[in-house]
Prior knowledge:
This protein is α/β, with parallel strands linked by helices and 321 residues long. It has a domain at 45-193 and 238-275: Pyruvate Kinase, Chain: A, domain 1 (3-Layer(aba) Sandwich), CATH 3.40.1380.10. The protein is 59% helix and 12% strand. It has seven helices and five strands, in the order αβαβαβαββααα. It has helices spanning 3-57, 93-107, 119-127, 145-160, 193-196, 218-229, 244-320; strands spanning 78-83, 112-117, 131-136, 166-176, 179-188. A five-stranded mixed beta sheet has the order 3-2-1-4-5, with helices on both faces. Helix 1 (3-57) runs antiparallel to helix 7 (244-320) and helix 4 crosses helix 7. The chain is elongated, with a radius of gyration of 30 Å.
Amino acid sequence: MPAGxxxxxxxxxxxANTRKITKAMELVAGAKMRKAVQMTVDSRHYSSGMKQLVExxxxxxxxRSHPLLYGRKxxxxxxxxxxxxxxxxxxxxxxQLIKKCTEFIKQRNEPVRVITVGKKSEGPMRRQKLDIMAxxxxxxxxxxxxxxxxxxxxxxxxxxxxxxxxVFLCYSDFQSTISQVPTIVQLxxxxxxxxxxxxxxxxxxxxxxxxxxxQLNPTERLAFDRQNTDKFTQNQEITFEPSPRYVLDQLLPRxxxxxxxxxxLESTASEHSARMMAMRSATDSANEMLENLTFTYNQARQAxxxxxxxxxxxxxxxxxx
Length: 321
C-alpha cells in the first residue's frame, strides 16, 4: 500500500475514534440536559410562587424601613456573582458569559468585586486582575439547594454589613435547546436600582431611614408590627401571622437563596444544552470529514490499482516482444 494511502487510512481511523467519543458525549450531555431542564422548569413554579408571596406582603409594611428592600440611590461598592461551568467543550457558553460580565463591569461607576461559581469563570477574571472575593465549584454535576446557599450567604453578609450596596448575578438563561442568553439581574436590594430614583425614597445618598423596631426585643417587635399593620390590612383578605413584617423577614433571605438557586439551575440546563449541541456539531463535522477522506482514499486506491494494472500490461507486452 502506498505511503499516501496509508496516511489517509490512518486519519480515517483516528477521526472515526474521535467521532465515537463526541457521539458518546452528545448522548451523555443530552441525558443530563433533559434532567436539568425538568429541574429548572419545576423550580420556576416555586420561584415564581415565592416572588408572588413577597409581593403580597410588601404593601402591608413600611417598605422604606426594611434593609433588604432599598439601598442607596448611588452605589459605592458592588458584587457580581458569575455562574459558569467547571468544564469546557460546551461551545461559546462560557465565553459569552465572560464577555457579558466584562462589559457590565466596565459600565459600572463603582468598584465591583467578583464571586465566581465554576472554574471557567475564575481564570478569565484573574487574568483581568479583578478583585475576586471567593470562588466556588459549579453545582452542575449535582445541583442541590444546599450547595448554592454558601454563595448566597456570603453576598447576603456583605450587603447587610454595608460592605456592598448592590449584588448582581450573571448567569445563562435557558430558553430552548439552541438558545441560552447571558443575563445579569440585581439580587440585592430587592428593589432594582432602576426604580430607586423614581421611587418614594428621596433621602440624600447617605441618609438612612430609621427603623424603630431595631431597639425592641422580639416580643415588643411583634406587638409593634401588629399595631402598625392595621392601617394597611383593612381591605386585605389574607392574614399573616404573627405579623406581615415577621413573615417578610423570613421570606426575603429565602427569596435570595431561591433566585440564586434558580439561576444556577438555568445555567446548568444551558451548559448541558450547549455541550450537547457542540458535540453534535463535532460529530457532524467528523462525519463530513470521513466522507471526504473515504472518497479521497478510494480515489487514491483506484489510481494505485490502475497504475499496477498498467505496469503489469506494459511488462507483459515487453515480454511478448
